[in-house]
Specification:
The chain is α/β, with parallel strands linked by helices and 291 residues long. It contains 8 helices and 10 strands. The strands form 2 sheets. An 8-stranded mixed β-sheet has the order 1-2-4-3-7-8-9-10, sandwiched between helices. Strands 5-6 form a two-stranded antiparallel ribbon. It is globular, with a radius of gyration of 18 Å. It starts with 5 loop residues before the first strand and ends with a helix.
Length: 291
Amino acid sequence: MNIPGRILKTTTADGLELDAILFEPRTKSSSIVIHFHGKEGDFLQNHFVERMAIDYPKAGYAYMTATHRGKSYMADFLRKSATGYEYTQLGSAFDIFEESEYDIDAWVSLAKKMGFQEIILQQHSTPQKITWYTYNNPNSVSKLILVSPADTLFAFEKYVTDYPANLKLAKKLVDQGKSKELMPVALWSNCPVSAGTFYNWGNPNSHIQEFNYSHPEKAFKYFPKIKLPIFAVLGENDFAVGEPAQRCLDILKEKSNSVNFASKVIKNAAHSYLGQEQELTDTILQWLKKV
């Protein structure tokens, strides 16, 4: 399908060059949805990105689908240096959760420079990142859309071989200054992972461990601090949550102090909504029109 888009580039505060594509309404809009992919994903990979690129602008919202340093299994990025640019290897295997703030802030700052007044953040799979960003930058955006918000601690416990032993190994390697060394096990989707990332994401006390549906005894640390309108959507058959989808959304509602929290379970849908891209897009737009 031929959809007119505009390629954008931005540079993070730590010098990393990132890419995005912007789709705009025919009539200039002051509102933009900035979409981020999840762990080991890509900013064009999910089929719903194409549907949103068509329908969001029709509804009056500019739509930017943006990359971040956690894309793909491993990826080369350009980074500004004293002599120009150099390549650095990052990607999901080397992703450090807290560094996501650099990437999100770079895109939010660019959107503001472009004149957008209402900035809405949307993320698939790991919207802990946009939640963490909003917690640390409370006046930067207006709304959050959590698409398939995963329980990462559940994912480690369910899908990672010998998780407790490998968490200890990762900690040992990090303490030895070997955080870039690859672990002997992969994460879900058979994704390779460095010791630094394994410990950063796998530590039960990590900042990524926020949507703890499978561990109700664990506190939600920063999600309850977000007062902005929030919409959360889960597929009925999502593999990454560990509890029935409606139960997970009920927990989010219970923990939220948003001025307007709403949620929806999409029947028969999986984590990435294959075959149900239109329903996902329509569901989000219906909420946007109400708030």
